[in-house]
Amino acid sequence: MSTGDGVAGQWGGVDVHFGEEGGRLTYGSYLRLAELLDQQRLESDPPAHDELLFITIHQVYELWFKQVLHELTASRDAMLAGEHWLAEHLLRRVHTIERVLTQQVDILETMTPQDFGEFRHRLSPASGFQSVQFREIEFLSGAKDPSFVRRFRGLTEIEKDRLRRRLEEPTLWDAYLDVLGKSGFDTDSEDSIRDALRKVAGDRSHYAAIWELAEALVQHDELAAAWRARHVVMVERMIGTKPGTGGSSGANYLRSRLDLRYYPLLWNLRSNL
Ligand code: HEM
Ligand SMILES: N[C@@H](CC(=O)c1ccccc1NC=O)C(=O)O
User: Fold this and answer.
1) Considering just the CA atoms, what is the radius of gyration of the chain in Å?
2) Annotated binding residue 70
3) Is the CATH number of domain 45-270 1.10.10.10?
4) Among 10, 88, 173, 243, which has the minimal tally of Cβ within 10 Å of its Cβ?
């Protein structure tokens, strides 16, 4: 047996020894756990029991949003580079994350409205409306709306810059049109795009990769819509018809966002198949 501080043991007759690679990298230092686990600061005083859950859920959302932006950006770039398989592969990873994002609502719903009420009044005027990464995902996906940048209150210059850059850069839809264009389709008008989509849908054996890419975009759109629907029902359960801490009408405002679709032409196509 070896000696030292690492984990040592006899595995299958081989003397293994972990955690002593010069004493540099550890689990905690690699993952920056000291910093990460020090970021959950409650507003309530005395501490409301459920506020830790509320903060943790939101921080986990933002970590996944970061990953989703990483994958969507790379997927868009893969489309622009003609690497259709890679674009689809990355979109499929995003779908899996998006399913988890919707399921996470289950965890937050173990909090009752009464227990939320213990600290909700401390949150105003903060709200999910101010999530920059959430809006970046919308812009990158195809739903650019510059009015959100103006309506945001309290954004830092760095955050404003990130949103402005997302408004300028190509969306996933722009990249898909580029794929259609490079495959020989005219994409100059909405009518010609509709025509191209119908041709792709009508000859899947010939246009397999482009068809599957469109399906992956529709899936991303559907999963985003599912999150919005789940969020608004959770909101009704938590605060009924009360206005939001962000200053909106609350559930009414959120219901007005339910019809948002990133790729309306891909949905319209369904009516003509
Ligand atoms: C107790 C749970 C929650 C309640 C009661 C709630 C309530 C609300 C309300 C009322 C709004 C409208 C803006 C306003 O405040 O006036 C809103 C927006 C929003 N919330 Fe939540 N929320 C909850 C949890 C979450 C979670 C876990 C997330 C995940 C990040 C989230 C993300 C968002 C986003 C992104 C918006 C903006 C939506 C849009 O503009 O389309 N919310 N929420
Ligand atoms: N807008 C929510 C409060 C809320 O959920 C929230 C507050 C601060 C930071 C993020 C939040 N999450 C989503 O809106 C409310 O009106 O109760």
Assistant:
1) 23
2) no
3) no
4) 10
